[in-house]
Amino acid sequence: MANIPGTDAADTLFGTGDADVITGGLSDDTILASSGNDTVSGGFQDDYISGDDGADVLNGNSGSDMIDGGAGADRINAGTGDDRIMVFDLANGNGDIVNGGLGFDTLMINYASQAAGVTFTAKDPIAQSTLLGGISVINVEQYQITGSDFGDTLTGGRWNDTLDGGAGNDTLNGGIGNDFLTGGDGDDIVNGGNGVDYIMGGLGQDTLKGGYGGDILMGDAGNDKIYGDYGDDLLMGGDGNDALTGGEGNDIIQGDAGNDTIDGGNGNDILAGNAGIDTIKAGAGNDIISIVIGEGKDTIDGGTGADVLVINKLAGAFTAKAPTVTNTLSDGSTFIGIESYQLDSGAGSTSADRWTGWDGNDTMTSWGGNDTLSGGKGNDTLDAGTGIDTVSGGDGNDTISVGNGGKDTVRAGAGIDSVTILRKDVAGALTFSITGNTGKLSDGTVVTDAEHYTIHAGSGSDTLTAGSALSVKFYGYGGNDKLIGGAGNDTLDGGAGNDTINGGDGNDVVYDSGGANSINTGNGNDSVSIDISAGTGANTILLGTGNDAVRINYAGGSTAGKFTVDGGTGTDIASVSRSQATKNLTFVLSPNATLTNGDVTLKNIEAVQMWSGSGADNLTGGALNDTFHGGAGNDTLKGLAGNDSLYGGSGADRLEGGDGNDVLHATYNTQFDTGADKLYGGAGDDKLRINHGDFADGGTGSDRVYVDLSNQATGVSFTFSNGTVAVNSVTKFRAAESLEFYGTSGNDTVTASALNDVLVGNNGNDTLRGGAGNDSLEDGAGNDKLYGDAGNDILIRTNGNGVDVFDGGSGSDTLKFGFSSEKSVILDLANNANNAGMAKGLTVTGIEIVYGSALDDDIRGTSANEKFFGGDSDDFLFGGAGDDVLEGGAGGDLLQGGAGKDQFVFHTDGFGTGDQIVDFTRGQDKLVIDRSDFGMAASGNPGFVVGADPQASGTGPQFLFETDNGRLWFDRDGTGNNYDAELIVTLASDTTHVSTLSLSDFLFV
Known about the structure:
Layout: E1 3-5, E2 12-14, E3 21-23, E4 30-32, E5 39-41, E6 48-50, E7 57-59, E8 66-68, E9 75-77, E10 84-87, H1 90-93, E11 97-99, E12 106-110, E13 119-121, E14 129-131, E15 135-138, E16 142-146, E17 153-155, E18 162-164, E19 171-173, E20 180-182, E21 189-191, E22 198-200, E23 207-209, E24 216-218, E25 225-227, E26 234-236, E27 243-245, E28 252-254, E29 261-263, E30 270-272, E31 279-281, E32 288-292, E33 299-301, E34 308-312, E35 317-319, E36 327-328, E37 334-336, E38 340-344, E39 354-356, E40 363-365, E41 372-374, E42 381-383, E43 390-392, E44 399-402, E45 409-411, E46 418-422, E47 431-435, E48 438-441, E49 446-448, E50 452-456, E51 463-465, E52 471-475, E53 482-484, E54 491-493, E55 500-502, E56 509-512, E57 518-520, E58 527-530, E59 538-542, E60 549-552, E61 562-566, E62 573-577, E63 586-588, E64 592-595, E65 600-603, E66 607-611, E67 618-620, E68 627-629, E69 636-638, E70 645-647, E71 654-656, E72 663-665, E73 678-680, E74 687-691, E75 695-697, E76 704-708, E77 717-719, E78 725-726, E79 732-734, ...
Parallel strand pairs: 1-3, 2-4, 3-5, 4-6, 5-7, 6-8, 7-9, 8-10, 9-11, 10-12, 11-15, 12-16, 13-17, 16-18, 17-19, 18-20, 19-21, 20-22, 21-23, 22-24, 23-25, 24-26, 25-27, 26-28, 27-29, 28-30, 29-31, 30-32, 31-33, 32-34, 33-37, 34-38, 35-39, 38-40, 39-41, 40-42, 41-43, 42-44, 43-45, 44-46, ...
Antiparallel strand pairs: 14-15, 36-37, 47-48, 48-49, 64-65, 78-79, 89-90, 102-103, 103-104
């Protein structure tokens, strides 16, 4: 016999062949027990446990474990978590006793070795039951069953089962839950039942029924019968001549190969027969039916509703008829009951198509060829593609597009219509103008009665004029273009070349990317973006009236181009990037300001955003909110009035916020800034961020100083005051009211202000004191001491290897653990000697609130009133004496309030697995439910049903309590079909359970 313990790491532990005792540790362990009657405990986290031969006792403990008992009569206690228990060979499972424990557990049984068909029915997990093969089971919620090679009957339960019939003519019933059902070979009958099920028929003549829920049903080979029933289902026939019926709901049905019969039923369905001679009845609802010319002589009936027929690879002539009249396609397919069409000739088609729509909203895509498209009534989308095309929109608000080829004719018709003309392949100059209701392009294209135009003009020097259009989008691309907007909200993009752009009225968007350009946006709140990557062209930008914005070389910060900007009237902002500049830039915002050495003049601009380069730059803002980025070099940045943002970059910079609530950063990256920066907040409530060697003066107002020494190895010691504080010999600040400190890798000793501070220890043996105020303190590596002092503080442990002291002090203080941790939190506030995992070596006092990690935690309280939050995974929370609040969070949690008036809090993110309360005391403890989270009304009581087998009564949110086992369920919609009831909590210990419950046991908030 050997005693084999694990560690805090992820271990692989092997048995010796004797009667071993193997204990996993705090991580994801692999335990292989070998022969012998072994006793195995997985410990924390998600373990793999194999018992091998022998009568073993296998304990999963916490975590979502995988447990294989192997040969022998084993006793398996899965513990908390969503566990998977395997019986690969039924002979190995004979005599096994399986207890799934708390969580959402799955038992996997393979009956493939049986000499005859088997009958399996999932049992209620609360009740002890014996399955075929002599396996005793309790607390197992779902099953993964593989049947024999004969005719099996397999029935799932309330949860998510996986049933595989294998060979033979099988009958599978999913029951409640989201099940995965596979019939396998043979003529199978598969019923999904409630839930969102995935159903595969396999080979043979199968009958598949989805039941309630949005199911996926796949027929495979054979002549199958597939019924979606209720819900929004996906039906796929596979090979063979299948009969597919959608039933209720908005279904998607594909016949696949074979001569299929499709009935959409009620709802807005999407139907496709695919290859073969198909019969499609869409039924009621607004359906979409797709066919491909040449795949079969189909018969289609759209039924009632506004139905759409999608016809692919349609070439030549097509004229829609009234929905009550039967129409015939070129391959012999017939259809009736269609209100609108989506017609597509197919990519690469060059046929001369002649298509006429009906009164619905039609879509036509004719690709190549000289086409004639007529939309008729309705809001149509017509794309004639390349070629010399004639397009008529008819009545309605139509969207029309014609491609390269030239000399198109577009009659937009009545309504508010949009026309797009694609001429990107044209190298010569194009001219576009509008006279009356007619727009003409110089290649012979004529457009009548359109309101909105989009023109892509090509590489020539083009002249495009909006005229009376409601709005335009003009794209000049290459060439020296002239783009003239109108009264609407236009988009004008000159592209490369020396362009002239006039926005006119409206809120226009203007782009340009090269050359020497003249831009006048006119009236409205306009936006201009111009990026010049090369050359010295002179660009003039007149913003006109309105509150405008201009961005100059924003993308790359090039020094190319010369710019003169006049903001005109209104409140205008200019964003200028010369981040590639090497010269010293100087700028002072004024009604006529010049960026010296930057070739930028800004007139009548009220606010700026500016990025300078590697020189010693001097940038000054104005009365509004300005932003300056100094880049490299020894820069001077002044915000003056307004709420400004100043970023020094590398170098020895001077930042002056002036009036307003300013943000001053000595650098972007602490690691690369070695300059001695000086920051002056001025008036207002400022935020000043400094590094090693910097100085900060908050000025007047309530200022906060950020000190980042994370790149320093030598520790510091200082106490916050309103006077001058020497962090170390070269790093100082004064006139600040609160502190945010990021420590060195040495030993830091810091006492913060009386306000709300943030202290992060980093490496080293640190001592951090929050002082008064609601502070946040974080330890880092090393042996740290954190004192929250007065106020409601948050103490955060991110490193579980030190010997730390956390004292919350007075107030209601919180202990948190870093969620990047790979260790569980094992915390005992009453006896710190028991602390382990992320709490190992931690001495805790003065803590009232604890948040666990994202892993499996064990948190135990004292006699005080405490609040524990488990977080993700499967946690154990014990309140101890006192009036405690316990919230397990996601996962299957074990909750014990202890003495006192305790509250147990539940949210919908913990649904499915369900928690367990082992000591709920009626009249004393409460179940706390968030009304909003549970979809309940702000006032009034939800439905509540109590009984041995409670059933929802009426629609709306309802709670269901089982008196024979203490399980509490929640059904979002009662008797509705959209949701199943989900388990919230079981009120039971190992020996007894709460036998009744009332609304007085709840607290709805």
